[in-house]
Amino acid sequence: MKTRNKTVTAEFGENKRFASPIVATTTPELFRGALDTELDRLRDKLLATELARTINLEANVLLRRAANDAVALVWLTPFPLLLLPALFAEKALAARRVAGRQALIRERTSELLALAE
């Protein structure tokens, strides 16, 4: 075990302040809030149109998830408002297929369960 201790003295200089750089008002980051609001409005409009055609509650949940997934994906692109309708249409179609397949499986399973009783 070492028994030697070395003393270090601390030296402090005067405090320095740094000026923050001036940000131009035309940067896209400043308009992100407005774009986010427009994107939410468009998502809600597209979702309302799809939900008006849906009576199945399970498809309702899947369509809402598809809308949120589509918004999350298009947010990463340079033109999210332009791409959202097409991507949501694809995801809504896939959600309807999944809901239909689940309904078919549930129907077949209920028939088998009825025979087992």
Query: How would you sum up the global shape?
Result: elongated
Helicity level: 55-70%
What's the helix count? Answer: 3
Largest sheet: none
Whole-number total of structural domains: 1
**Spatial separation of the terminal alpha carbons:** 78 Å
Query: What is the H-and-E element order?
Result: HHH
Query: Spans of 5+ residues with little confidence (pLDDT < 50)?
Result: none
DSSP strand tally:
0
Give the integer mean of the pLDDT values: 84
Strand share of the residues?
A: under 5%
- The helix-and-strand class reads mainly alpha
Radius of gyration: 28 Å
List keywords for this structure.
117 residues, mainly alpha, 3 helices, elongated
Task: Tell me briefly what this model is.
By secondary structure, the protein is mainly alpha-helical.
Structure, described:
There is one protein chain. This protein has three helices and no strands. By secondary structure, the protein is mainly alpha-helical. The chain has one domain. Helix 1 runs antiparallel to helix 2. The longest helix is centred in the C-terminal third of the chain and has 37 residues. The radius of gyration is 28 Å and the shape is elongated.
